[in-house]
Amino acid sequence: MRVSLRKPHIAGITVLKPIEHQGNRWPKRQARMFAATQEIFRAQQYLRKWVGKAAPQAGSNDSPSSRGALGSPKKEGTTSPTSAEAQSRWDNDQEEESPRTLLRRKVIRGELRELRSEFTDTLDLSIHVATWNVNGRRPPDGLELDELLDVENPADIYVVGFQEIVPLNANSVLIGDMGEAAARWEALIHETLVAYPADKESGGMEAQKNADEKLRGQEPGGDLPEGGPDSEAADDAQRGDDERGVENEEKKGGGAKAGAEISRGEDGRGNDAAERSSGGLPNGGSETGGTESAVGTGPEADGTSVDSTDLIETLEADWHADASAKEKLDRVEGERDLRAANGATRRYVQVASKQMVGVHVCVWVRKEIRKHVRSVQTSAVGVGLLGVLGNKGSVSVSLLLHESTLCFVCSHLTSGDAEGDESRRSGDVSEITRRTYFTRSLAEQQQNLPATIGEHDQRIWLGDLNYRIALPDEEVREAVKKQDWETLVESDQLRLEQNAKQVFVDWQEGKIDFAPTYKYCPGTDRYVGTDPIAEGEKRRTPAWCDRVLWKGDYLTQLKYGRAELRTGDHRPVKARFATKADVIVPEKLEALLAKLRAKADADEMNSRPVCSLSPQIVHLGDIRYGVPTPPQPLQIHNNGAVRAEFAFVDVGGSGPPCPPWLTVTPLKGEVAAGEVLEVSVSARVDSASVDVEAVIERENALEGILVLRVHGGGDHFVSVTGNYLPSSWGLRLTKLAAFSEPVRGLTRVDLGRVGDNDGEVKNAVTGQVSKEVAMGQTVPKEVIRLLDHLMQPEQAGGADSMATKDGDAAKGRSPENGEEAEDPEAAQAAVRESLDTGADFPPGTSGRTALAALFSFLAALPEPLLSKSILTAIEADFATAKREAVVLVEQGLVPSHYGMYELLMTSFAELLNRGAEKGLSSQALASELADVIFGRSGVKEDKRRKQRVQFVKQLLDDRTNL
């Protein structure tokens, strides 16, 4: 026994059928297993169709890219591009747009949408809308839609909506109808729009039907193949025709044709008119809130008519795939081409088609404007059983025509005339409005294309809204007889709900001056319940169930009425609208773009702080060593309209904001619009901030650049200059010892002539340093003057206050009474100025001032008096290295430093001997001296400082004990 898979038309789902081997019977156990498997499989199919949750079966391929023009699976190896692929290419093109193009699109579709009138003109268009509840019936033979579509007055756009396009039974709601009914109605619409009026003269739809029947090998008006459209023979023939359709499409270049919409639900399954012809099962569950790309979207369709004739021919073609079918098909196509040449021009093309169970909508546009229709999307929302199934709900179409967005919503709302049913219908409208969503590509999102119904420029809502008339049946029928429409409209539930702001707020509906469209006895002009004698006839109060509403500034309703077509229990309703579409005028757009660029530049300037500095060059004048210059003002003017935040930054971006010899206050801050902030700039030169010898070599010029960075406003540069007055502080001992005149007159040339004389003080015979010669030739005159002043008898008493335990005198405070002494910085500066210029010390210069100046001089030496090797020795192990360090001092110092060292130790020893009776101690003097003779690197943590102080004290004690 073997099992094969088949897809019978009759149920619309895959069914497993046993096929017997010759002479064998299906065993009962296997039959039971097969039946259980079939039930499970059927349940999975139901679940998939109900709520769209089941994953696709392995090996299945329902994606749009895997389907041909008719929605049937493509053969392996085919490369026909699909609308989805074309849309992907279109998206990529949009993402690679130039900045100029992006700016244009931003103007057209973006935040500047309100300026659209400045670069567009309006194009007058007409829209014809028709809605019909066909009561689950297919179009009968001979049915003409001329009155419904008003083809004698052709419109630019046709929107046709159907309700109950299939019977609303369990099979249709849960499984679907394969889309055959929708295809037949679309074929009739196509024939009416495309072939009118030439085809009318040649028989119109009837001629088409006869041609199709000849193609099937039948006599006109004959029957379908044995078994009907749901038979297995018909099914096999249909699959054959589908394959031929795919082959024809591949020969033509592929692509999704009009009427064969490739759509997706949330679960990724195809679900549309095209899918209906190949086994897709539309329903509310899988489409709830989903969106789909409709027919002909993307750049492939620009200027090209999207033709649905192939779909119609295939759907109504021969059920049998015999060898002569293609020849017959070619012959019929030739006949149609001949009719087209005689005047039967294809004037309309379909751009969208969407079905959800019984609700169906299709949109047709005039061929000439097809290339201006872009970004077509569809969406379906089920609000029926369980709130999601598609027996009730809506299908919507969104499209962009030129630069105007249009949305068409076709709905079938909750039925019933019980109290409160109108509120349920209004709730359906709210739910549809909330859940309808059009998925947009990245490029479309950048263009701000609408994703919801309310975001569109123009909106039209059509369908069987099922609102009733809130009057007794007899009163309604009497008013209908009198054609008293105003009385009935006053009690129309939709109008009452609108007036109460419960539904369709700010939407409009035309004047109703036609009879209620529901409920008729099919094929008659008689309302149901009019003839009480008729058996089984349920009485229904006439009502305007079928309506068309609109919302949009450009929309103007020209006609509103009904068509007298008697198929089904509803009369169709039609409406004609005049509207406008915004059309870009290139010249206006370019002018607007130029205007916007200029405005954007101005806005950018206005939104940025605009600052200026005054002056551009700050002159600090003469700069003395250790003395701050008077602050010079630098003004920051905020000439812009916004607050300016600023900060001084390093030229290179990573260092300090200004040179170490400069002080800028404040370094950062903000300036209010139109205000001026003053920044002070001053300088202070010392050996820690400046290489004074290098400055003298630059002819005493001090120069620096300040960079002021304004947040959002760029960088501003200020040049700072000053004239350095040479000082003995910061020069090497050998340089100073070489000059007999004061250093204030020292020039770059003078400094360059001085060499290193350390080697000249050694004894020519022994090679040892001569102490006398060293002290006489290598000690600067400035040091000798300080020591001479300190050693004067009148100053000897001042040395003790200079070097007591706390060293208060060095800090400018008298140790005796703690009163504030003279400003130590000013006093030292005066002494320094006297030394640099050769002038006498200011009268009253104290010994402690002279000693403080001496310590300052020693600290400023470029090379410390005691070398680094000595410092390393005493810090490594003071207990064992003390004597070694003393030896290093005696033997390792260069002559210039040795002479200075000997003079200092001798002078300090004498001071200690003189001041011993007044409490002057070597410990106090060593504490001050240890911080300066080892240079700037000598001051470290307390433990090592104590070692250095002890070492210096040892040196002093050795001298005082001699």
Automatic annotation (TrEMBL):
Per the record, its GO cellular-component terms are:
early endosome membrane; phagocytic vesicle membrane
| Domain spans labelled Rho-GAP | 763-962
Hydrolase among keywords: yes
Give the keywords, sorted: Cytoplasmic vesicle, Endosome, Hydrolase
One GO BP annotation of this record? signal transduction
Localization in the cell: Cytoplasmic vesicle, Phagosome membrane; Early endosome membrane
Protein's UniProt keywords contain Hydrolase: yes
Q: Which Pfam families match?
A: Exo_endo_phos2, OCRL-like_ASH
Write down the PANTHER family for this protein, in alphabetical order.
Answer: TYPE I INOSITOL POLYPHOSPHATE 5-PHOSPHATASE 4 (PTHR45666:SF22), TYPE IV INOSITOL POLYPHOSPHATE 5-PHOSPHATASE 9 (PTHR45666)
Alphabetized InterPro entries for the sequence: Endo/exonu/phosph_ase_sf, Ig-like_fold, IP5P_plant, IPPc, OCRL-1_2_ASH, Rho_GTPase_activation_prot, RhoGAP_dom
Q: Where is this region: Disordered?
A: 54-100, 200-306, 795-830
Q: Name one GO molecular function term.
A: inositol-polyphosphate 5-phosphatase activity
Instruction: Give the protein name, as stated in the record.
Output: Type I inositol-1, 4, 5-triphosphate 5-phosphatase cvp2
- Give the family per the record: Belongs to the inositol polyphosphate 5-phosphatase family.
- Compositional bias (Basic and acidic residues) spans? 200-217, 236-253, 263-275, 803-816
Alphabetized SMART domains for the sequence: IPPc
Residue spans of biased composition, Low complexity class: 221-231
Q: SUPFAM superfamilies given for it? A: DNase I-like (SSF56219)
